[in-house]
Amino acid sequence: APSRLARSPRARPTMSAATALSARSNIAAPARLARGSRGVAASRVASRARSSPGSSVVVAKATPAEKSNIVVFGGTGGTGSECVVQALRRGAKVTVLARDPSMMRQPPGTGGANEGAPVSDPNLTVVRGNVSNPEDVAKVITKDTTGVVVSLGGKTKDVGATMLTDGTTNVINAMKAAGIADDARIAIVTSIGAGDSANQAPIVFRVLMATVMRSIFNDKNNQEQLFLGPGGPGRDLEFCVVRPGGLGVGPPTGVVNVIDGEAGSIARADVADFCLGALFEEAFPYVGKAPCISSVGGTSWTKDRGGKGMMEA
Questions:
Q1: Cβ neighbours, 10 Å, residue 196
Q2: What is the pLDDT of residues 259-282, one digit of tens each?
Q3: Please, what is the average pLDDT of the chain?
Q4: 204, pLDDT greater than 80
Q5: CA pair distance 292, 237, nearest whole angstrom
Q6: Under a CB-based contact definition with an 8 Å cutoff, are residues 259 and 292 in contact?
Q7: What is the C-alpha separation between 115 and 232, in angstroms, rounded?
Q8: Alpha helices in 47-196 (DSSP H)
């Protein structure tokens, strides 16, 4: 069912994904283009503008779920496991790099009554390894990878003060080494309050960001700069930096709002839905951007249901 629109004083005008894309790129519709010397077929690319008004670039065409071969980093975590299970349900092949493969279990949201049960699916491959090890990352990202989700987390004392940045750097390097930098999309889950969204976090959360969470937010900010910063090594990838509000563990609501003002809460299952939209949807309007999302306030993200297998819920 279509997402309900919860309006706030700073809500953006409602528009479909395709309309939003066209408005941002100042073109009538996304046009398919060949890459010429890059040698990528026209069926794999589309024309779109990034954040800079009037600038048009050629980007990777989305791969429908049932034809996708994605890699999820952080796939045993709360949001990452939602990405894994939802992608499998849509027919995608999924590879997970995990320090402990036995932790690949059904999440409490999408998993429902099966919460905590091991995830078993012929399209799932779980490889033991650590995202901080470049060789481990290179094992799971191949020339056949069509999309990547980075949903890393953990306490700083357990994973280190720079794990997010170091691990994501390894992912970027592996995508380029595999020759898929021009052809695959990547969704990176950070947080409300990261980067230039600090003022969109609730006041209490901002206090935590400046105190007990300072180390993790330093790492999140540096992680985002890999894509958003001048000269960042991931800036030329087809990325979407996803900044969710307060995370919940309930079932998916189908309400995902892009927020200009202060963000509210959102289920991890809905965050996963948004991340997979970045990988599977042809007209996903936030490629090259860093949207803040929640299920309260803002403008609903309209899913593209025009193609078989695309974002079917």
A1: 12
A2: 887 778 899 999 999 999 999 998
A3: 79
A4: no
A5: 20
A6: yes
A7: 38
A8: 78-89, 134-140, 156-159, 163-177
Instruction: Please answer whether residues 276 and 86 qualify as being in contact, where contact means their C-beta atoms are separated by less than 8 angstroms.
Output: yes
pLDDT given at position 261: 79
pLDDT interval class at 228 (50, 70, 90): very high
Q: Are 3 and 255 contacting, i.e. CB atoms less than 8 angstroms apart?
A: yes
Looking at the DSSP bridge assignments, the partners of residue 293 are 244, 258
In whole angstroms, what is the distance from residue 13 CA to residue 302 CA?
A: 12
Closest to 245 (Cα-Cα) out of 286, 313, 297: 297
Q: What is the largest CA-CA distance in the chain?
A: 52
Element (H, E) at 72: strand 69-73
How far apart CA 162 and CA 223 sit, in angstroms, is 9
Nearest Cα to Cα of residue 303 among 295, 294, 311: 311
Helices (H), the chain: 17-25, 78-89, 134-140, 156-159, 163-177, 203-210, 214-228, 268-280
List pLDDT tens digits, range 4-52: 333 333 333 333 333 333 333 332 222 222 222 222 222 222 333 333 3
- The CA-CA-CA angle for residues 45, 46, 51, to 5°, reads 120
| Alpha carbons within 13 A on the beta-carbon side of 144 | 9
Residue 175 DSSP SS3: helix
Could you tell me whether strands 56-60 and 45-49 are parallel, antiparallel, or unpaired per DSSP bridges? antiparallel
CB count in 10 Å sphere of residue 54: 7
In the block, which residue shows the tokens 């963000």? 263
Q: Please tell me the total number of residues recorded for the chain in this structure.
A: 313
pLDDT of residue 65: 92
* Contact assessment for residue 48 and residue 30, using Cβ atoms and an 8 Å cutoff: yes
Query: Which pLDDT band holds residue 246 (cuts at 50, 70, 90)?
Result: confident
CA dihedral 273, 275, 279, 283 (to 10 degrees): 80
